[in-house]
């Protein structure tokens, strides 16, 4: 089975992920060994830190070129971003360019703090204004921040919910994810790997703990969202 990695920080030197080309290559090699054949590189994008979307895209391209120059056979990498949800994000010019290249999919990260209704408003506005399919990153990571009713509002969004493979190694998070899946909500997987230490690729864990059919459905998600030319 060839997996699609939907969320990782493999590009060198652009965020808190891979600190060098060597680390990037080691991550790519481990993913290959674990059955990953397609990688979506999702460096962090914070609107309040970046001068513009275009400046971010330039930095991302430079990091990608450095990686490909070192090893042209590094594999199938799709460029994307993990876009932090901020108040007013939907008004940012050219936000659609942060979608996974060649698709209408954008990965959004909720803030690590108490839930506010403006977060759902931003998700809705980004989806409708730009015609994008929103994926909410590592939805299981907010159990300490959101109440049951908060989660109900977030999960009511017409979004896809990305789950980190690591969730299957935690009883609490695994239980949450299983309830999510049982309810019929769309789920895709990613390692959210940053390095070869504490946050290395862990597709072996997912293969052991998750239902094979769900993994297959996740692997084909991008193919359903490729933009027609």
Determine the strand fraction and express it as a percent band: 15-25%
Strand order of the main beta sheet, please?
Answer: 3-5-6-7-8-9
Output the CATH class name.
Alpha Beta
CATH architecture: Alpha-Beta Barrel
CA radius of gyration is 17 Å
Q: What would you call the structural class? A: alpha/beta
End-to-end distance: 29 Å
CATH homologous superfamily annotation: Metal-dependent hydrolases
**What helical percentage do the residues reach?**
25-40%
Written description of the protein model:
This protein has a single domain (3-225), classed as TIM Barrel (Alpha-Beta Barrel), CATH 3.20.20.140. The chain is globular and about 50 Å long. 35% of the residues lie in helices and 17% in strands. The protein has 229 residues and is an alpha/beta fold. It has helices spanning 21-33, 53-70, 117-130, 148-155, 171-182, 203-209, 212-219, and strands spanning 3-8, 36-41, 44-45, 76-79, 82-84, 105-109, 133-136, 160-164, 187-190.
Short description, anyone?
The chain has one domain: TIM Barrel (Alpha-Beta Barrel).
What's the SSE blueprint?
Blueprint: E1 3-8, H1 21-33, E2 36-41, E3 44-45, H2 53-70, E4 76-79, E5 82-84, E6 105-109, H3 117-130, E7 133-136, H4 148-155, E8 160-164, H5 171-182, E9 187-190, H6 203-209, H7 212-219
Parallel strand pairs: 1-2, 2-4, 3-5, 5-6, 6-7, 7-8, 8-9
From the structure above, extract its key features.
6-stranded parallel β-sheet; 9 strands; TIM Barrel; 7 helices
